[in-house]
Write a structure and sequence with these properties.
Blueprint (H helix, E strand, L loop, with lengths): L6 H6 L4 H11 L5 H14 L5 H5 L10 H4 L14 H12 L21 E5 L10 H7 L11 H17 L5 E4 L4 H10 L5 E4 L7 H6 L6 E5 L4 H10 L4 E8 L2 E4 L2 E5 L9
Parallel strand pairs: 3-6
Antiparallel strand pairs: 1-4, 1-5, 2-4, 3-5, 6-7
Length: 271
């Protein structure tokens, strides 16, 4: 049985009483040393521009104004207000919730194989929605003027690097982020074998763009924790950006600590 730690031990680890209570609320139980260490490491990697408590409470992620959304009409900003994590939960179920009698596409040919595997997003963190289902249905965008430049060349280069790491056994799965964005790619990897995912989102961009944006040239990979350092070394040598997302689970989907439910309540619809 994993032993919970008290507030004094947490404070010695750099976690204030207020943060300790917030972490307990997120987890639904008193945290262990491992729980606190994991959250602190994720904060160190994703949220250092904010205080720990602010980061835990999931304030709006965006720090940059997405000019292309507004087309010069900033007075319409409320129409494009960034959703919070609870709203994204509802959006995800509206877009990908399993509906009886609906047709669903086949998931990826490289599904997640076990729980506790590291999940990384390889490529630039996207702030672009493009012509995604989310953009059309929720932001009412019919076109996106963002120039993707050499996206295909970048995508091919990253694919080449990842294929080499797959062939030598460093990474176990590769899935390109395309239609449906990051959320759909994670669903695609988890659905065949019923594995969920527990991730934290990048704080420097809009939460909805991070989850549902469809900018090309990005991939989801899974690998054993023991291979994390070697993988990151190879990404650095190849000058490819990547960020740690979290880990695979035994079927639950958690994003920023919010429970989205079982992965079996979702599906990838046929378009």
């Amino acid at each position: 049985m994993i032993e919970a730690v008290d507030k004094d031990i947490a404070e010695a680890m750099g976690v204030s009483n207020a943060c300790y209570e917030e972490i307990s609320a997120i987890l639904g139980h008193l945290p262990s040393v491992e729980d606190l260490s994991t959250l602190m490491a994720m904060w160190d990697g994703n949220g250092r521009q904010q205080g720990l408590l602010t980061w835990l409470r999931g304030i709006p992620h965006a720090t940059e104004f997405n000019d292309y959304l507004y087309d010069g009409q900033r007075e319409e900003a409320d129409s494009f207000k960034e959703p919070r994590i609870k709203e994204c939960h509802t959006i995800a179920h509206n877009l990908y919730g399993r509906k009886q009698g609906s047709a669903f596409s086949l998931p990826t040919s490289h599904p997640f194989m076990t729980t506790g595997e590291s999940l990384f997003m390889v490529g630039n963190v996207s702030s672009q929605f493009l012509n995604s289902d989310y953009a059309r249905r929720y932001l009412h965008l019919v076109s996106n003027p963002v120039d993707m430049g050499n996206a295909e060349e970048t995508c091919n280069y990253i694919q080449m690097i990842l294929d080499a790491l797959y062939d030598n056994g460093t990474i176990h799965t590769i899935d390109e982020i395309s239609q449906g964005g990051l959320f759909a790619a994670l669903l695609s990897g988890g659905l065949p074998n019923g594995y969920g995912f527990d991730i934290l989102c990048a704080r420097e961009i809009r939460l909805d763009a991070f989850l549902f944006g469809e900018e090309p040239g990005r991939f989801i990979v899974s690998l054993s924790e023991k291979d994390d350092d070697y993988f990151l070394l190879k990404m650095d040598e190849a000058r490819v950006n990547c960020c740690f997302l979290g880990r695979t689970t035994n079927g639950r989907i958690l994003i920023d600590g919010y429970d989205f439910g079982s992965i079996n309540t979702f599906a990838i619809p046929v378009h």
